[in-house]
Amino acid sequence: MDEDQDEPIGQYNDANRAFLQAFLARGTMTFKESQPVLAAIFTAQEGQTVESEQITQEDFDSYVSAASAAISPFDLEIRSAMHQLRKERVYAVVNTTSDPITQLATLHSADEIAFVKRVIDAMFERYNTPRMEALCLDEMQANKLRVPPRPEENEDETMMENGEGQSQAPKGLKSSEVESVMRSMVDEGWFERSRDGFYCLSARALLELRSWLLDSYNDPDAEEGEWQRVKFCEACKDVVTIGQRCSERDCLVRLHDNCAEAFFRTRRQRGCPKCSKEWTGRHFVGERAVTETEAYQRGRRRSGKSARHSNVAEEIMHEDDEEQEEDGDEDGDEDDE
Ligand SMILES: [Zn+2]
Ligand SMILES: [Zn+2]
Q1: Which bound ligand lies closest to the C-alpha atom of 250?
Q2: CA of 223 to the centre of ligand 2 (A)
Q3: How many angstroms separate the alpha carbon of residue 278 from the centre of ligand 2?
Q4: Of the ligands numbered here, which is closest to the C-alpha atom of 278?
Q5: Which ligand is nearest to the CA of 260?
Q6: If residue 90 lies in a helix (H) or strand (E), which one and from where to where?
Q7: How far apart are CA 234 and CA 229, in angstroms?
Q8: What is the pLDDT of residues 105-137, one digit of tens each?
């Protein structure tokens, strides 16, 4: 940073502080969202109107990096990643030391936090298998998680050690509370809800929880080529929870939709970079792994608009579970039972 006596450009000033304040209040920001914010700041600073359109990516970048430097003593950092669906980069203030549970604790009760943890576990475990990487769930499925598993099934040792485990066990939520907690997770920026009513982790959550997700769901001793619950995009190296997968079930190559488009634009053949099987663009990670199935479409036709209030999604994902237990072989992707 250069120091100029007359124009303290490289110096942290009121404009930077105002920007950081706006950023912290939102938690995330895109370049587009930053434009009116920076325009207002520049207008105040320069005493003449600066329009949003005049704000450049360079303006934004310099304010982001100044803000990031300013917050680093507080174990905060600004990280960014492309949104998995929208073609825009999302910047988020990320706490580099505290775990997500601690952060949720300021706004939620212990029972709510335990429920949210069960929801995230379900996204990455129950609804994320080698055959079907849905990595999302609908409200009906979330509702099934409102009560914690019974102590017999619960392997939580601290609860077992506790002589009065039963009375100490968390209570769980009512159905009406499930709805409001899920909604507040969307409002607070942790979950995103799709048009079809599926909840998945938001771009911000993926940035913030990246290492926690790896610690929680991936096996550090897994061998090369072994299926893991958290996977990364072959092109951009960020986590993929919505995107495309290789048509070869045992191949681990995953790509975001945007990344796949760019990746194959420069190549003559649409082959998987690892196993060279044809890249169909029709094998999905995320909710389309469910919604693009024949069974889901059929169910939706049958029940019309109320499809998301039916059990269709659960049936498709669960059917998958059962196959999972029996199989080990790969006898085609069609469900011909
Ligand atoms: Zn990518
Ligand atoms: Zn492949």
Answers
A1: 2
A2: 17
A3: 8
A4: 2
A5: 1
A6: strand 89-95
A7: 15
A8: 778 899 999 999 999 999 999 999 999 999 999
Instruction: List, in order, residues 6 or more apart from 279 with CB less than 8 Å away.
Output: 244, 246, 247, 260, 264, 270, 271, 272
What would the CATH number be for the domain defined by 110-156+171-319?
A: 1.10.10.10
Distance in Å, CA 270 to ligand 2 centroid:
11
Report the relative pairing of strands 191-193 and 137-138 from DSSP bridges: unpaired
Q: b/e for 238-257, b at 16 or more Cβ within 10 A?
A: bbbbbbbbbbbeebbbbbbb
Q: Binning pLDDT at 50, 70 and 90, where does residue 267 land?
A: confident
Residues 289, 295, 297, 299: is their CA dihedral positive or negative? negative
Contact in structure between 119 and 142 (CB atoms under 8 Å): yes
ipTM > 0.95 (yes/no): yes
Give me the residue spans of the domains in the chain: 14-74, 110-156+171-319
Whose atoms come closest to the Cα of 277: which ligand? 2
